[in-house]
Design brief:
The protein is of the alpha/beta class and about 270 residues long. The protein has ten helices and nine strands. Helix 7 crosses helix 8. The two termini are about 35 Å apart.
Length: about 270
């Protein structure tokens, strides 16, 4: 595997390959990332993975500092998956140049995580926009666990007529129904048991709404149930229509239940 640490060294790579699939990460690789990479391989044999912990998408210095980092382990995982190229840039290579495209923040950026993490999505779109401008991949593979992020990146790409195609990949979960996330590395054994109970409760709530043909969706009871489990803070539990992005009202709409809550200092998100 070729590790590319500087932007200037990418020219040699681009002279060798015409197109490639791109999987952007912040490291802390897990089975969810592995699944993204495997999907990327089905689109293009040339795979480039990036590892860059983007400071602009964190809302606190402590959150940025505590984000899981293990470069040596990440490299081992990528080599095992036979990834050909790893882009491991520094801050200056990413942020010290003027971009061609303006950041487009769709109004959906103000809901869900955007409401509780001001500036987060601008930071996400800034780094994604810069990576796409530097790399110009044919495909970029992203996970559906971060539904809002995926939606906003797609809208930004369409607005700026960027040629990269976005490929969405289903959420990958462990045997206890916890979606894989780098932040899970900061959870204790007890925390993971609690997280599993919460995620199963939310899944069962959606199944109940569909099965019982609920005509007026109200998630207050499920929120209170989760708080009684020992969750100290819930940012949101909302059912949103996937077409209108407004609150879903009844069972026969195409909707997902979106959630964000804290176990200790670890913020977890999901959608069903």
């Amino acid at each position: 595997m070729k590790i590319i640490r500087q932007k200037k060294d990418l020219n040699r790579l681009f002279s060798k390959i015409n197109s490639f699939s791109f999987v952007p990460t912040m490291g802390g690789l897990h089975k969810g990332h592995e699944s993204l990479i495997k999907k990327a391989k089905r689109k293009n044999k040339n795979i480039l993975v990036s590892i860059f912990v983007n400071p602009k998408q964190f809302n606190s210095k402590n959150d940025f500092k505590s984000y899981p980092r293990n470069f040596k382990k990440d490299v081992q995982i990528l080599k095992k998956l036979k990834v050909k190229y790893l882009f491991y840039p520094n801050y200056n290579d990413i942020f010290l140049f003027k971009t061609k495209n303006k950041i487009y923040l769709h109004p959906f950026s103000k809901k869900l995580c955007g409401k509780y993490r001001p500036g987060h999505f601008r930071g996400v779109l800034d780094v994604v926009n810069r990576l796409l401008e530097i790399l110009k991949p044919k495909y970029m593979i992203l996970g559906e666990k971060d539904f809002q992020q995926l939606f906003l990146i797609r809208k930004h790409i369409i607005k700026n007529n960027i040629k990269t195609s976005i490929i969405a990949h289903k959420t990958v979960r462990n045997q206890n129904f916890i979606p894989y996330s780098s932040r899970n590395l900061n959870l204790s054994k007890y925390d993971k048991i609690l997280a599993s109970k919460v995620f199963k409760t939310l899944r069962n709530e959606k199944l109940l709404i569909k099965r019982e043909k609920i005509k007026k969706i109200n998630l207050l009871n499920v929120k209170n149930k989760i708080l009684r489990m020992g969750i100290k803070k819930v940012d949101y539990i909302e059912a949103l229509n996937l077409k209108s992005l407004k609150k879903a009202k009844k069972f026969n709409e195409n909707f997902n239940i979106f959630s964000a809550f804290y176990i200790g200092n670890v913020r977890l998100i999901d959608n069903f």
